[in-house]
Structure formats: C-alpha cells, structure tokens
Design goal:
Helix content is about 80%, strand content about 0%. The chain contains 5 helices and no strands.
Length: about 110
C-alpha cells in the first residue's frame, strides 16, 4: 500500500514513528500518499511543521476535488432530467386512472 510506503519513507528520513504514523494514516489514498511521497522524496529532512502543513494542503485539495466531482454528477443528473420529454396528457391521465383504481380497491 502507498501509505505503508509513505510511512517507511518517513522513518528512513528520520521522522518520529508516531508522526509518520499519523501522516500515513491521514494520507491513506493512493492520490494523497503519492503527493506526500513526492514532496518528501525530493527534499532533505523537512521540519515536521512543514510536513504537517503539506498534509493539510493535500487533504484540502482532495476535498476540493471530491466536491467538484459531486457537483458535476449532480449537474449531469439535473441536465438529464431537463432533457427527458414531458409526459403527454394521455400518459398523465393513465397514471391518474391507475392511482384512482388503486384507491378504490383500498376502500373495499
């Protein structure tokens, strides 16, 4: 798993075990772990504050992308709804008749 690779890299770089565990647990997806691996790999030992700040930035980016995809899916569903043809009066009448018949059978 990428989070294990991230954890091992942080230990190799000299970060405390508990800190590496927190960072790798929070950045558990392939996308987030890869970003942090790239950030840590390209530099010498960074202060823990900078690593924590980068973790927060990565999580913020991930959350923004998730919200964007949710919004796009919702917009696609709305667009599809508006593209559907309107029911004709005959179809609407058939639906109303169906429910009237169902109501009448309930009365019996």
């Amino acid at each position: 798993m990428k989070s294990e690779k991230l954890f091992n890299l942080m230990i190799e770089k000299g970060y405390p075990n508990g800190f590496a565990e927190i960072i790798s647990r929070e950045l558990h997806t392939e996308f987030t772990a890869n970003r942090m691996i790239g950030y840590i790999s390209a530099r010498d030992m960074l202060p823990m504050e900078e690593v924590a700040d980068e973790m927060l930035a990565i999580l913020s980016d991930r959350d923004r992308l998730i919200r964007k995809h949710i919004s796009q899916d919702a917009q696609a569903a709305i667009n599809e709804f508006y593209r559907l043809p309107e029911e004709s009066d005959d179809e609407e009448e058939e639906i109303n008749d169906f429910y009237r018949l169902d109501d009448e059978s309930d009365d019996e």
